[in-house]
Amino acid sequence: MTLDQERLLYIVAGLIAFGFLWRRREAIAHALRGTLIALICAALTYLLLWKGGLSPLTAYVGALVVGVLIRRLQPARSRHISARVKRQVIAKFEKEKGETFNRRIHELDHVHPYSRGGGNAEDNVQVLPRKKNRSKGAKLGWRGMDE
What we know:
The chain is mainly alpha-helical. The protein has two domains: 3-73, no CATH class; 83-146, no CATH class. The protein is built from five helices and two strands; from the N terminus they run H-H-H-H-E-E-H. The protein has helices spanning 3-23, 25-51, 56-73, 83-97, 130-136; strands at residues 106-110, 125-129. Strands 1-2 form a two-stranded antiparallel sheet. Helix 2 (25-51) runs antiparallel to helix 3. The longest helix is centred in the first third of the chain and has 27 residues, at 25-51. The protein is flat, with a radius of gyration of 23 Å. The mean pLDDT is 86.
C-alpha cells in the first residue's frame, strides 16, 4: 500500500467516523455534560475533604460517592418534544403542505430515530401521517418518507 493510498484510507475512515458521531451528537453532548459535571463535583469534594483534614483515601472514597450520586441524580435524555419545537414543526408542515395538522391523522416523528441517538431539535422532527409513522418504526433511510 502506497503512502497516498494509506492517506486516502485514513480520510475515508475519518469521514465515516465523523458521520456516525455527527448523527449521535445530541446523545454524546448530553452524556459528556453529565460526566463533566460529576467529575468536577467529585474533584472539588476530594479537595475540600483532603484539605479539611481527612486522609487522601477517605477523601477519595467520599469524592467517588459524590460523583456517582451526582451522575445518578441528573435527568436522563427525554423523548419529550418541547411545545416550541412542536409549534414550529407543525407551522412548517402547514405552510409546506397547505393542510391543517390533525392529531387524529398526523403524528410528530423523529427523522433520525430517538433510539439511535436522534434528538428533539426542530431539524430532527417532522409531521407524518400516523399510518406511515407506525409502519416506519425506528428505521434509518426509510423510503416512504417523501411520498
